[in-house]
Amino acid sequence: MLKKRSILSLEQKEWLEFHWIYLLLSFMLPVIIMMVVYLLNGIYPGSERSVLASDAFSQFSNFHASFRNMLLGKQGLFYSWQASIGLNYLALAAYYLGGIFTPLVLFFPNQLMPDALFFLTLIKIGAMGLSFFVFAYHSYRKLQHLEKLALATCYALLSFAIAHSEIIMWLDAFIYLPLIILGINRVIEKQRYKTLFFSYFLLFISNFYMAFMIGVFSVLYFFAQLLIRFKATKKAIIPYFVTAFLSGGASMFIVLPTVMDLRTNGETLSTFTKLKTEATGWLDLIMKNFIGVYDGTKYGSIPFIFVGVLSLYLCLLYFVSLKVNWRNKLAYGAIFAILIASFYLQPLNLFWHGFHAPNMFLFRYAFLFSFLVLYLAGYGLELAFETKPMLKISLGVGLLAIFSLSYLFKPASSYTYVSQISLFATILFLAAYSLLLALSQTSKRHYISVLLLLFVIGEMGINSYQMIKGIREDWVYASRILYTGPYEDIATLVDSTKKANNSFYRLENLDGVSVNDSFNYNYAGIGMFSSMRNRHASSLLHQLGFQSRGTNLNLRYQNNTLLMDSLFDVKYNIATQDIEKYGFQQIESANQYQLFENTNALGLGLLTDPTIFNVQLPENDNLTSQTNLFNALAKQNNRYYQFMVPKMVQKSHSQVDENGSITTFTQESANLEQTITWEITLPKNSQAYLSLFPFDFAKIGTSKVTIDVNGQKRTTQIDINGQYYNLGNYSKSTKLRFTTSFSGEKEIKLIAPKILILDTQAFQKAVNQLKTQTVQFKTKGHLATAQFNAKTEQVLFTTIAYDKGWHAYIDGKKTSITAFKEGLLAIKVPKGKHHLVLKYYPPGLFLGCTLSISSGLLFFVFYRYQRKKLSQQL
């Protein structure tokens, strides 16, 4: 009978049996500390306050829900129909969902995704502690396990990780950093390569963005080893780079498609106009080493580098100790110098971010500084038990003086976030550590180790509490009810639409939880907020009235016209009140939510003439673009829109300045909305909109407007949504009075507000014609199919986002795809009845898979060769 081979060697099994309690503690201690920290901030499983802050509410919760949908077979791995008229889902998953723990969302219903992210955050923080303990065990031979446990706790709770804990996908990268450094050491010292290969591999597939920073740092670390131990490291140059290269190659199945998507849809490289970074000062490194200092993660913040007062003390002890070789100090000092220079010099700062300036959450590589401090602190702790008490006391006194003097003489207008409590806590813990280590040669070491661990738990717990409190005050942890409250009602209505349809359609919620709801509730929508997006499609939609300015991070459905509802097959709207849109009829309700069906929704495709490619879409005129496209598709020459000027009849708490085409609304009373009442006589057969367009988006801030019309109110943020605010549908001539209430900025400057009138008769005439040209599609995963009958050689125009990953087959034969205005997919089709199949494979997928398999095989050959070579040497 064949004996089953174990994954672990006998040596590894014995090691686990002996050390399992410390491995468990290295994981559980940070988890327990963070559970207490979250509890003190009112966050726990099922709590009213959720763990969702900043992007976690609108992005990460919904994207994790979509991943669960994918695991359950409700959507494809390669492509998502759920948002932005279609998206490369593999690229989105690689950026947001690549960690090995992400599949655990399968055990949480979408409604409980806040709890899923809570547990995932704890698990990842615990894994950080576990990975550093494994690193410490193999790196610090002179330390006791409790001391290694203290260092692991410092790493798991470093300020950068906790202050950015809502950016949950970054935490995965921190898990692998210690293992990569351990892997490099094993390559140099023992000619062993598996640790480095698999650590790099897991890092690359977990988060390629952070992988770039860690990759650069690890190369710097390797070069530092060349200076420190040249003979041993010189022999490892080729094995190290071969292992790193093959590990990167093995990850190409997910990295290459993502990189190719970024090349197609990514932003241009950032440039710099100033040499020095914004908001940084000469005391930053000291001030950010006080306990509990949180200065925000928006703009104007400085690097989060705190990893414990003990770590800082021991790192400095390493540099002042005469027992440390000058080469070591020079090598590691050089890495510190590069990181510190990067904090202050914009070119270096941009380099670490891949030459893309971060959108808030600045200095995203600062955790590398913290790791290096802690890495050297381990060696400093080894030295501490061999160093004379006077040096340790002198170092402690020196640090106490630096902290105290920096706080006392800091500029009055700077570092206001450093409180006296932070100063006292820092002094207290620093004094305690200095005293403990000074007594380490006269007391039993075990007692010193226990006390060090207890103090570390207290220090890092206090700091973590302040970080979470800072997030709560800076970003606000959203109430659970905001996410879970509407879930059942919305899901009920969405499920109802699925049962009523066999072919593709789109749906949008006017009163949704967030712009990314379609990912969570698994319906095809238009709006999306994501760093991974199809910029060409979003730009075209912006040209057609769906707001998506700048780099297209945001794409919004709200406040566009009926023409675009029909053209983009928006068959349903969900809302909490009557939407008063021509052609939309209420068909169902679920408590406060109502479902409206659009009788004029067109299919995903339309048969039209090849002349469609010649249609003109003026860049800054969305109404002309809509008119030209609609008429070209319908082969008509209708006039759909006209503008009228409303009369201002009343104002409250507002000073109105009308200066030609610009109207400025200035707040007269602080904290009170500016309220303007308008009147207009509308013609019959009209859908009316109020056009509000900021004169300067940079100055509008997050100002909002509430439209009160016919007894219904709807509030919208002005800068991120469309400009056409619905005022209702009127079959008869009507004198309309409505109110706008502005809040936010004291001064709101707009292009003079006008009333946009859509002629519903002209619109209906065009829609009736387009219905005869409609081609219905069925979609599943990365496939879309359709049957059509072309009267002549025509063009099948679709509202599917164009992407090079699409492949078209007519009656089984591959045919070419054409991009309409670089944003939509179109196909020239022959006359007659035909069957169309569209298949999507992310560009670079097959090449990436080939590279991954090849790299894996090459590493296996390389590994076996090196092992054989090593055994011969022994």
From TrEMBL:
InterPro entries: Uncharacterised_YfhO. This is ABC transporter membrane protein. It holds the Pfam family YfhO. It comes from Enterococcus columbae DSM 7374 = ATCC 51263. It comes from the Bacteria. The chain crosses the membrane at residues 20-40, 77-97, 117-137, 149-177, 197-224, 236-256, 302-320, 332-355, 361-381, 393-409, 421-439, 446-465, 840-863. Keywords: Membrane, Transmembrane, Transmembrane helix.
